[in-house]
Specification:
heterodimer; A: alpha/beta; Fumarate Reductase Iron-sulfur Protein, Chain B, domain 2; Rossmann fold; 3 domains; 5-stranded mixed β-sheet; 23 helices; 9 strands; globular; B: alpha+beta; Uridine Diphospho-n-acetylenolpyruvylglucosamine Reductase, domain 2; Uridine Diphospho-n-acetylenolpyruvylglucosamine Reductase, domain 3; Vanillyl-alcohol Oxidase, Chain A, domain 3; 7-stranded antiparallel β-sheet; 5-stranded antiparallel β-sheet; 16 strands; binds flavin-adenine dinucleotide; binds iron/sulfur cluster
């Protein structure tokens, strides 16, 4: 059994942040996991109390705490709503690193996270192969993995209806780009993210089309690695550090005004998590991270705030489309108006709001794999809210949510298309 | 931990999934929102029907296990901290059905685990109004509200939870179902046991159904904010408004410390030099609202408010309220530990109370921001500290003692709405009398001979 005193010591570094939790319980109102299980240990207040007790050696069952800690979507709803301003994400991510490292990563997880994810070339090659043999790639991966993007790593799982790997990934279609700024005078580095590269290639292509339309130069280097969220949310600091370093080295080679991604999760990871977890890096790396923190931007925000795209009036009378505020987009980045503006740019559509548009869809990464039933229950509430609008299309700004909603809608046999807001905008061009 | 056989019996009643035995699960029911030491229960049981609830209560009594019923666990007085002697926590959050909303007779019947805000929203959907609105309403349960007699911002005009309780069905310690009150406006059938259950903090019985009164909603409202360079003037304004026969639905107060903390947090440009801010809202018929607002403005001008802002529309009203909405978030962020007190005085004594609180803060060298419900004298002196700093926390405890002393000397009360629980039981005799405690204990002994219903709360052990 793990030495609890050592574990406790490590967790004490979180004390300054945890002590800010005044145990008011207001997080019960917003936590999607709590809404399903109604168990205090599943809500932020309970998790923090358990971590505090672990740090004080008042609890013996560390594995029990680990299980509760991992039963979380890392959706950030609780932090965004916390009257005491507790930095919940900080606490949970660091705690996952400490507790999961301490309890030991499983060999499968290690193999995937460290052996595959951190080697972009190998990872891509394997998945390119995988896309050709998707039908026979049927290993059941119940193992807890990182983010929702980890579904990329396990294409066919159980009875889930999700989007498979694209026939041809973006990196094999386009490889790399390095074009000068056009009429916009701006140049962006483009980070499609794993999902944009390997599953929703049409989303990445829509971004490229928009950049071209507006005369935006693009730097898209070959060999991009995952942003690291699957690794860090599994508590794998080693793989995470490697991924961050690969990306930093790659982007250091180009010059650009913004680093743009179509994945709210990637944007939030680069903007918030990288700077949060950089204190042990060398000064040069920290500088690079600070620079990227300032430059990284969600694609919707880029098009609206930087390129100045703005609809004259909301489009009316077209195909009904409803919008889901992805957690990372709204709660981490505070982006809500921009994707709606882009949808309103397309006269073929009419935006209708759904109830609880900012309620988590239940994807939450590893969560979807490790707690599939719970994830499905949370997703069903989202699905019902979508269906209640009568919309034929549901749009969002995060490929991870697109996966989850596709799964939930298609299992229900609902004929609702799932589109990224940038796709709807790109579709209105020319 | 109770015996395996007893656990089996609980499982037979509520199902295996609803009996929590693991260390992690039990520890997560060892605390509530009060700043007190945690006590880990020996078992946690979650009935999913009121019938199961009665059986669980009976089983606990038969085996002599102390019961602590828990709603959302947001009370601020330790009312849901379980008993260290093999205490069992009973959760009500799966008893969350709204059984009936009667639009003709203006009442609703609910199970105790219904969340306050969800209930209020359902009622509003039917064009009716359930006024009690504690700050925790997004999570608090109606059972918890009744058991604490929760108040809220609308207390002055609309009253508090007790004013809406028409009837209660509750289980006695033996699991027998006691019915009291009714669905009628008038009812004198038997003792007013429903009244006894209000604010009983789980020490006398376990509610299974509650009948709540509903009212028609006001058609219009108007909000304004007034700034004062002297707390006395704010208090005169409150008195003046009441004397002008206007009963605002809300009349909220913030002292200088709170104003500054809020301004630090929101950068909203609040008047940092002001000694007090009042936020006032009148509601009712549109015509009456306009009249009342005019009267209030007159009073505010007369007593010499340095600034008066009247909201013209819903958006402006939302903005005006922003400062008040941010009072707790701003205070809570300022320091790690937030001790939310609740001493209440007759409203004319507010200036004396605020002065005393500031003196106490200076004396013990601690930070206190005071805000609250000026209309009913219910202040929330909020102490900002770091409970890890033992010396400071000792000073905080002394300060709390003195705040109570002052409140009592001003003919106020220990708690306006947060309850006595464990936090304030040692003060009970001081406010009431020895006979009061004896009477209460005798009554409790008669209905709960084994003393298993949330022992240690309100009247001590
Ligand atoms: C941020 C914040 C703001 C707050 N604002 C206010 C406010 O404005 N006004 C106010 O009055 N309070 C306020 N409170 C205090 C608290 O929310 C209230 O006391 C609320 O009524 C508690 O409800 P609960 O469901 O959390 O009950 P719990 O805390 O779970 O329980 C409270 C008491 O009720 C008993 N109980 C619960 N259910 C039953 C039942 N079925 N039968 C018998 N006994 C039962 C419990 O044993 C316990 O003694 C606030 C608290 C917080 C954290
Ligand atoms: S809302 Fe914030 S302060 Fe309150 S219990 Fe949850 S995490 Fe703690
Ligand atoms: S991050 Fe989301 S799932 Fe996790 S505790 Fe917070 S609200 Fe719940
Ligand atoms: S967040 Fe983006 S880059 Fe990171 S794993 Fe998910 S899709 Fe890949």
């Amino acid at each position: 059994m793990a030495d609890l005193t050592k574990l406790a010591k490590l967790l004490q570094e979180l004390d300054d942040q945890m002590v800010g939790c005044m145990k008011c319980g207001m997080c019960q109102a917003v936590c999607p996991v709590f809404a399903e299980t109604m168990k205090e240990a599943d809500v932020t207040r309970g998790k923090i109390a358990l971590l505090e007790n672990l740090a004080k050696e008042m609890i013996h069952d560390a594995a029990g705490v680990q299980e509760k800690l991992n039963k979380c979507l890392l959706c950030g709803s609780c932090g965004a709503n916390c009257p005491s301003g507790v930095k919940v994400m900080d606490i949970f991510l660091r705690a996952r690193v400490i507790v999961n490292t301490y309890m030991g990563l499983s060999p499968v997880k290690k193999a995937i996270l460290r052996g595959m994810l951190t080697k972009p070339a190998l990872f891509n090659a394997l998945l390119d192969l995988g896309s050709k043999f998707q039908g026979i790639f049927t290993t059941k991966v119940d193992e807890l993995l990182g983010s929702s993007c980890s579904k990329v790593l396990s294409p066919v799982i159980g009875d889930r209806h999700f989007v498979g790997l694209a026939k041809e990934s973006l990196h094999s279609k386009v490889k790399a780009l390095d074009t000068p700024a056009g009429k916009s005078g701006k140049r962006v580095a483009f980070f499609p993210g794993c999902l944009g590269d390997k599953m929703f290639v049409s989303v990445a292509e829509a971004c490229l089309k928009v950049f071209e339309h507006h005369g935006v130069g693009v730097y898209m280097p070959e060999g991009q690695a995952c942003c690291g969220i699957p690794a860090i949310s599994s508590g794998d600091r080693v793989a995470y550090d490697k991924l961050v370093r690969i990306n930093l080295d790659l982007f250091a080679k180009g010059s650009f005004d913004y680093l743009v991604t179509p994945c709210a999760t990637c944007t939030a990871t680069i903007k918030e998590i990288w700077p949060k977890l950089m204190e042990d890096y060398p000064a040069a790396m920290r500088d690079q991270i600070r620079t990227l923190h300032d430059k990284v931007m969600d694609v919707n925000q880029f098009v609206v705030d930087v390129l100045g795209v703005a609809p004259e009036a909301p489009a009316k009378g077209g195909v009904k489309v409803t919008f889901h505020d992805s957690c990372h987009m709204k709660k981490s980045l505070g982006v809500t108006a921009q994707p709606r503006a882009l949808i309103n740019m397309n006269p073929k559509y009419e935006l209708v709001e759904m109830a609880e548009s900012d309620r988590c869809c239940g994807s939450g990464g590893s969560f979807n794999l490790s707690h599939y039933d719970l994830s499905r229950q949370i997703g069903e509430r989202k699905r019902d809210n979508i269906l209640a609008t009568g919309a034929q299309v549901v749009s969002t700004g995060c490929p991870a949510c697109m996966l989850q909603m596709t799964d939930m809608l298609s299992q229900h046999g609902a004929k609702v298309a799932v589109k990224h807001s940038i796709e709807l905008y790109a579709d209105s061009l020319r | 931990m109770p015996s395996a056989a007893l656990i089996k019996e609980f499982e037979a009643v509520v199902g295996k999934d609803n009996v929590f035995t693991s260390e992690a699960d039990r520890q997560s029911y060892s605390y509530d929102s009060a700043v007190l030491d945690a006590v880990v229960p020996s078992l946690v049981v979650r009935p999913t029907s009121t019938e199961q609830l009665g059986k669980v209560v009976r089983l606990c009594n038969e085996n002599g296990n102390p019961i602590t019923v828990r709603g959302a666990g947001t009370n601020l007085s330790g009312g849901t901290i379980p008993d260290p002697r093999e205490g069992i926590v009973i959760l009500t959050n799966s008893l969350n059905r709204i059984i009936e909303i009667n639009e003709e007779d203006l009442y609703a019947v609910v199970e105790p685990g219904v969340v306050t805000a969800k209930f209020a929203a359902e009622v509003a959907k039917r064009g009716l109004f359930y006024p009690p609105d504690p700050g925790s309403q997004a999570v608090s349960t109606l059972g918890g509200n009744v058991a604490e007699n929760a108040g809220g911002l609308r207390g002055l005009k609309y009253g508090v939870t007790k004013d809406y309780v028409m009837g209660i069905e509750f289980f006695d310690v033996n699991g027998g179902l006691v019915k009291t009150g009714s669905r009628t406006v008038k009812c004198v059938t038997g003792y007013n046991l429903a009244g006894l259950m209000v604010a009983s903090e789980g020490t006398l019985g376990v509610f299974s159904n509650i009948v709540l009164k509903l009212v028609p909603p006001p058609q219009a409202s108007k909000a304004m904010m007034a700034v004062f360079d002297d707390v006395n003037k704010a208090s005169e304004a409150v008195a003046g408004i009441i004397a002008a026969h206007v009963v605002p639905c809300t009349l909220e107060f913030m002292d200088q410390a709170t104003i500054r903390y809020v301004d630090d947090f929101t950068k909203a440009g609040l008047p940092r030099d002001a000694q007090a801010i009042l936020l006032i809202e009148v509601d009712g018929h549109p015509g009456q609202v306009a009249d009342d607002a005019e009267k209030v403005e007159k009073v505010l001008n007369k007593v010499g408010a340095t600034e008066i802002k009247v909201a013209k529309d819903a958006a402006e009203k939302f903005k005006l309220w922003e400062a008040r909405r941010n009072a707790l978030p701003a205070l809570a962020r300022a320091k790690p530990t937030t001790v939310l007190e609740d001493a209440t005085v007759p409203r004319s004594k507010i200036p004396a109370m605020v002065k005393a609180i500031n003196d106490i803060a200076a004396k013990y060298n601690i930070s206190i921001g005071t805000f609250g419900h000026a209309g009913d004298g219910n202040l929330h002196p909020t102490i900002l500290c770091d409970r890890r700093d033992k010396h400071e926390f000792e000073r905080v405890e002394h300060a709390v003692d003195e705040i109570f002393d002052v409140a009592l000397s001003l003919q106020g009360t220990l708690s306006g709405e947060h309850g006595i629980g464990m936090a304030k039981s040692k003060w009970m005799e001081k406010e009431t009398s020895k006979a009061t405690i004896e009477f209460s204990r005798n009554m409790k002994r008669a209905i709960d001979p084994k003393y298993i219903l949330n022992p240690g709360k309100i009247i001590g052990a």
